[in-house]
Design brief:
about 230 residues, alpha+beta, 6 helices, 8 strands, about 35% strand
């Protein structure tokens, strides 16, 4: 189940001495606190086996407006008053923390969450004068080519909808792929498809910020969606 936006969180490397406690807190406290809010539909967490972030969290939102509700703002004010040694405050201060609110820009259809556990994340920054060319390549060549490959189940593209929170960075464009097989990103057909002349030209001027392969470690749904 998905809406028209996501809240993306990427965590490079939580301190090893608190990692187990941090994961328990995230599952038992942070995720339920969000799924109780209006506009939050589902949450998935992933642990990366390759890439810039060790953990990825995805909150499916009805729209980016879920981050503007009075209920969400009240939770944020309460959390901002927590002591500096709380896991909430420590999480926001983690080195390499990536957080962004993104609106779906492709495809123009509702998202049906598949029963898969592999996520492929790619994120880019694109020069303003190249956005139209980047969009045309992604939507008309790259995504269709990927979805013809074995093991590629869904493909969604997003654009940053809300300025990144102070102290964090978020790429401008984000692509999420649900995969049935982790080898789908490494097989010969994938490597061949990604080397088209158009793809090579686009890669010559965009900046890739994230490339993450991860396995799902949990998923949960808002009470109203069950």
């Amino acid at each position: 189940m998905g809406g028209r936006a996501i809240l993306f969180g990427g965590f490079a490397n939580p301190p090893q001495q608190i990692e187990e406690e941090w994961n328990r807190w995230y599952e038992s406290t942070h995720v339920p606190s969000r799924l109780a809010l209006p506009g939050f539909l589902a949450a998935r967490r992933f642990k990366a086996y390759e890439g810039e972030c060790k953990y990825v969290s995805l909150y499916e939102l009805e729209s980016a407006a879920a981050l503007s509700t009075a209920e969400y703002q009240a939770v944020k004010r309460r959390e901002e008053a927590y002591p500096a040694d709380s896991l909430e405050v420590r999480t926001r201060a983690l080195p390499g923390f990536v957080r962004g609110v993104y609106e779906q820009i492709h495809p123009d259809t509702a998202y049906a969450m598949p029963d898969t556990d592999v996520l492929f994340v790619v994120a880019h920054d694109v020069p303003a004068e190249r956005v139209d060319a980047f969009t045309a390549w992604y939507n008309t060549e790259h995504v269709p080519a990927m979805l013809r490959l074995p093991g590629w189940i869904t493909a969604r593209r997003f654009r940053l909808a809300v300025p990144a929170r102070q102290g964090t960075t978020a790429p401008q464009f984000l692509s999420l792929y649900d995969l049935a097989d982790p080898d789908a990103v490494e097989n010969e057909r994938f490597l061949r498809e990604r080397e088209s002349p158009w793809s090579t030209w686009v890669r010559s001027w965009y900046t890739r910020r994230l490339r993450i392969k991860a396995r799902q470690i949990s998923r949960a749904f808002a009470p109203s969606t069950k």
